[in-house]
Amino acid sequence: GQNIDQPTEMTATEGAIVQINCTYQTSGFNGLFWYQQHAGEAPTFLSYNVLDGLEEKGRFSSFLSRSKGYSYLLLKELQMKDSASYLCAPMDSNYQLIWGAGTKLIIKP
Amino acid sequence: IAGITQAPTSQILAAGRRMTLRCTQDMRHNAMYWYRQDLGLGLRLIHYSNTAGTTGKGEVPDGYSVSRANTDDFPLTLASAVPSQTSVYFCASSTGTGDHNEQFFGPGTRLTVL
Q1: Using the 8-state DSSP alphabet, how is residue A39 labeled?
Q2: Sheet holding A60-65: strands in order across?
Q3: Chain B interface, Cβ < 8 Å to A
Q4: Do B42 and A43 count as a contact with CB atoms less than 8 A apart?
Q5: Is A72 on the interface with B (CB under 8 A)?
Q6: What is the pLDDT of residues B53-69, one digit of tens each?
Q7: What 3-state DSSP class applies to A87?
Q8: What is the pLDDT of residues B55-111, one digit of tens each?
Q9: Are A96 and B105 inside 8 Å of each other by CB?
């Protein structure tokens, strides 16, 4: 079956760095997306990885290891506005996104 | 309009009633999707359409139907609503199938079935 595993909740301090891990099992693989979702709002795209390695985009970076079925999202210089849920979503062989339940990130001053 | 819109924003519905959730995009995207999001669960795909005139069933299609008469619109119909369909419904669109196929989401419809 298809399965996504990410922590339910994480807490970090403003200005710090946090890493949100995601492990996945899918039928086929065509890349992995990370989305951000603020409470009461729609998900918005953060990053996409299809090859192994690190993709950096400003304060956010995303890493992929296809052989391990593993990805992480790294957030640097945390700001209060980064308080949100972060959704890991690999794409299966049918190009459908398989969504994890998300990691709720709480930023404390 | 710019992007993807949904209507209504929220709705309270009596069980057994018929309801259509509307979704419109102006990005000329080929593919459109309907998801439901429930507390503690990931987004679950209800139905999708890879191009106008075609639709497909997702993970949780029972009790829902869709149509795709044109590129822009993708309505979702609950023929006879039940309380378990209480959820937040998101419509999304993307350029099409293939990798790096980012999905853009509408603002969502909060539906309560009593």
Answers
A1: T
A2: A3-5, A18-25, A70-75, A60-65, A53-57
A3: 35, 40-45, 48, 58, 90, 97-108
A4: no
A5: no
A6: 999 999 999 999 999 99
A7: strand
A8: 999 999 999 999 999 999 999 999 999 999 999 999 999 987 676 789 999 999 999
A9: no
